[in-house]
Amino acid sequence: MECTSTVVDLLNDARARTLLRYASFHNQWEALFPLHTAIYAAEPLDNEVFGELFAAIAWLLFFTRLRHLRLSGVGLPRRLIPHISRHVTLERLTLESCILEPIMIGSLHPRLQMPNITSLTIGFGGTPRSNSMECWSVVLYCVNLRQLFVYPVEDNSIVHYPSSSLFDGMSHLHYLQKLHIQGGSSLLRPLASWIRHSGDKHARLSHGHLTHFKLNTVIGTTDDELSILLDALSTFHPNVRVLVLEGIVDTAPAVTRIAYEFPQLEGLTIVRKVDMFQKTVRLCQWDMPSYAIAQVLAALPRLQHFAANLDYTRLTFGPAAFNALAYPALDSVAHIRSAYADSIDAILYEHLFSPSRVKTAEEKATCLALIEKRDCYDSLLDGPSIARPFAVYCNSLTSFAIKTDRTAFSCHIRRDTHGNAVLYDVVDKDVAGGFEAWNPLHFETWMHLD
């Protein structure tokens, strides 16, 4: 195998062997030759085909100080587990389209525990032999898990939650700090039952340790399903600080419950879907006005970031622009300056609303420069207008965004010496906005816990 020879070359290089922290092994046969492998593909655990690869991985683990191991499209044989569990520095494990030996499925074997793995990522599906229910069994062996990220490998696939038969062995969910489920089922009762079961086993000791929770569902989730999940979360993990819910149908009851049951929230992102059948995320009207949402969120004293897929028209003039229109005599820039008391808005107003006026090249350049810098968009775009109620009602808020899969509008918020909210770094482009700490980008997750 070319892969094994690459590992040998790597191990012969002392400098590379010392510095290596991440290794990824990806079986590309099915992706490159789907028709051939559909007939002749070897089982990912076939020792005759993959035995050399498993031996190479074992040698790599023995001679390096890896922190993150990724396996894609290959099996996780029982023989590799001791090499993983004995590794001093290895703490992250990513398994994508992998399968387990039958003996590892459904029940925990103490000799196969991997107590050093604190961060686990599972990519479900991708091959006919990668069964999602079986892959959940990996969680059984990561007994000190602190961060879990799961997602479907294929588009439009769904992550189904673990069956109740695994709950006893997966009760360490209670001690997770970050849980991220991407592309999950909208039927949330099994997930709520898992949270409740693990909480019941450890409730006498303390509340759960969960600080970050993100759930993205493929289709819309009804309030009946969501309320059961929120009840389990608020009961056993009331100290959640960052909450992301993408795919809610009924936002009004959800926002109200969240505001009063998660008092420690610092970051909240809610993405609505108009019904249970919607898959594509887009901006949409919510079932409560934005100012009402802001009033409800005022109950969260620590909220620093809020994002939602509220629909808005970015070219609608905000209130400040209509203040300028209230002045009847606008024949000169000087009059606008004295009446409106803002030279930036005055020049921009003259540029936009008096096209017949002959402008000097210097004035035109000034207007264009102001527009390019967005120093005066605060008066002319509706984005800042939709952000203002949240900035006013939520005194601790420092950032706000309108987003779907990507960010459509964002701004930061600061307070002047009088305590008034001032919006800055206003961006109305389709960019990330720099808010990944509050909500990871699509099919990415939060940074690993140090």
From TrEMBL:
Organism annotation: Auricularia subglabra (strain TFB-10046 / SS5)
Top-rank taxon, per record: Eukaryota
Gene3D superfamilies in the cross-refs: Ribonuclease Inhibitor
Name by which UniProt lists this protein: F-box domain-containing protein
Record InterPro entries: LRR_dom_sf
